[in-house]
Amino acid sequence: MTVEQSVHHSADVPVVIVGAGPVGVTAALLLARRGVRSLVLERHRDVYLLPRAVATDDEVRRILQSAGIADEFAAIARPARGLRLLDAGHRVIAEFRRSPHGHHGFPQTSMFDQPELERLLREALARHPECELRGGVEVTAIEQPAEGPVRVTYRDDDGEHLLLADAVLGCDGAGSLTRDAIGAGWEDLRFEEHWTAIDVTTKAAVRCWEGVDQVCDPHRPATFMRIGEDRYRWEFRLRAGEGLDGPGGWERLRELVAPWVDLSRLSPADGFHVIRQAQYTFRARIADRWRLGRVFLLGDAAHLTPPFVGQGLCSGLRDAHNLTWKLARVLQQGADERLLDTYERERKPHARHVIRLAVATGWAMTGGQDRAAALRRTAVAAACRIPGVTGRASRDLGRPLRAGPLVRRSGLGGTFCPQPRVTAEGGRHVRLDDVLGDSFAVLTAVPLPPSLRALTDGLGARVVDVHGTGDDGTLAAWLRAGRADAVLLRPDRVVMDVVPAGGGDFTGTAAWAPLLCTTRGPVEQSVSVPLSRSSAR
Questions:
Q1: Among 201, 218, 261, 486, which residue carries the largest CB count within 10 Å?
Q2: Rounded to a whole number, what is the distance in angstroms from the first to the last CA of the chain?
Q3: Sign of CA pseudo-dihedral 412, 417, 421, 424
Q4: What pLDDT does 61 receive?
């Protein structure tokens, strides 16, 4: 080995993140907001320019708010009306409406261009001195010794480098080196199909309803959506031997998109520019383990889903939101290492559920044309006419976390608190999380007894009287509906514990307190959030 190729030993790094896609960079931003330094390693030198993910939900927009880019993302996002299932004749089988005002304070579905999102995330990363991004590097090895830091080896133009990290986050996609390094394998959830995605810009009049169309035609299943002002995406399952390249490719494309736009009538000013045509194999898989010691899997490294309910990227960002506050608490406040065990325990069931929903939707699109298939489609259409069914199906993407060490079994336990606009000091109208910050929080409709005050002090929790928020009564009504006087919120805004209506205590303390207790004393004092005096009770 030459001198130039010798391994360079770098200084210790609290967290190494492998992969600078949206999941990796969001994880870095969420850690930075808690004062945790990270180094992001990425093989590409710049944002990958071709579009991939195009949809997100309101919970994930709330995560982007936590990452500090809520307003910037709003400028590039386009709210969508929901999802429609269409039959082969493009008649509506079922419609799943999505509200422009979701539980989390954002539209329930938004369309966007992934390269634009990645640029916003990287610009935010550059504003944080706690983060560093190194592009054009190849991670070659990740080793988790029985004791001591994780060893990460990577190669760049100067040779090989060794990093010693307190934790490693593998956000390196379906072909993850990190997954191999921890000895994880795939559990196959039995879905594999080959599809072609086509991204187009055109000023032509395209027939669309400002939502997503899923065409349930076993012979020609398809997905269509409007992404931006003049941006559209089609996805088709093409037959063996079919393609859009070479002779006859344009004619085949014209035939495929005919239900939405007539290419024979395009004017030169309209244009119809294919900016990407890519073949994908849609798979449904989940890693059998997501962690070894201080090495974790996130995003596509941990789970793969067909795209039919638009939750691929969303699931990865949920991973980052769930893990980063726990990791920060362990690294900075000396919380119990067992706190990190709750990451896979909480996220894996939800990821599996979302994948199964996507597989079920894919099955509905491709499930054959026998008599039973026709009866199933008829049954789906009839069920979706029952009041509340389609709304319930939409909400099911964000189902509550199961009861566990960080979630007390109760009516509100494991759910997310709503995020209305509130009135902050000075009369400013802001979103609730902008007031709560990154800490634990207590939302209460009654004065807290001294015993609960002691608990909130130990967690550094912010205490908010819901009657003084200046909102439209959303928080107070939510507590009443959940039969609660107060709730304890985790930093990811999941309800961890509940004081039942009529008084009581946070009865789950015995489970969660040992995990969250610090070895360095209280992090900060309990804070009563300053809201406008005019709106205080």
A1: 486
A2: 72
A3: positive
A4: 97
Residue written as token pair 């992001």: 40
- Which amino acid makes up residue 478? W
Measured N-to-C along each axis, helices 22-32 and 312-333 cross at an angle, to the nearest 10 degrees, of 30
| Measured CA distances, 290 to 52, 208, 284, 294, 344 (Å) | 24, 40, 16, 11, 6
Q: Which residue has the tokens 């049954």?
A: 379
Phi and psi angles of residue 368, each rounded to the nearest 5 degrees, phi first = 90, 170
- Would you state the pLDDT for residue 389? 46
Residues 9 and 70: their CA atoms lie apart, in Å, by 38
Classified as helix, coil or strand, 486 is strand
Query: Mind spelling out the 3-state secondary structure of 119-178?
Result: HHHHHHHHCCCCEEEEECCEEEEEECCCCCCEEEEEEECCEEEEEEEEEEEECCCCCCHH
Strand partners, 199: 233, 276
Q: Which helix (H) or strand (E) holds 292?
A: strand 291-292
Distance between CA atoms of residues 118 and 113, nearest Å = 9
**Cα–Cα distance measured from residue 260 to residue 224, given in angstroms and rounded to the nearest whole number:** 9
10-48 pLDDT, tens digit each: 668 999 999 999 999 999 999 999 999 999 999 999 987
Q: Residue 300 and residue 528: Cα distance in Å, rounded?
A: 40
CA distance 32 to 27: 9
**247 φ, ψ to 5°?**
-60, 135
Phi, psi dihedral angles at 213 (to 5 degrees): -105, 125
Single-letter amino acid code for the residue at 333: Q
Enumerate residues 6+ apart whose C-beta is below 8 A from 74: none
Identify the CA nearest to 82 among candidates 310, 242, 246. 310
Average pLDDT of the chain? 87
Tokens representing residue 282 in the block: 């849609």
314: Cα within 13 Å, side-chain hemisphere: 28
Contact 137, 42 (CB under 8 A): yes
Burial of residue 292 (CB within 10 Å: 0-12, 13-18, 19+) is middle
Q: What's the order of all strands across the beta sheet hosting 273-287?
A: 92-97, 82-86, 212-215, 222-226, 231-236, 186-201, 273-287, 303-304
Q: Are 227 and 110 in contact (CB under 8 A)?
A: no
Q: Which of 141, 69, 142, 131 is nearest to 106 (CA)?
A: 69
Closest CA to 438 of 72, 61, 29: 29
Query: In 268-284, which positions are buried (b, 16+ CB within 10 angstroms) versus exposed (e)?
Result: eeeebeeeebeeeebbb
Q: How far apart are CA 417 and CA 301, in angstroms?
A: 29
Nearest-angstrom CA–CA distance, 62 and 69: 10
457 or 434, greater pLDDT: 434
In SS3 terms, 411-437 reads as CCCCCECCCCEEEECCCCEEEHHHHHC
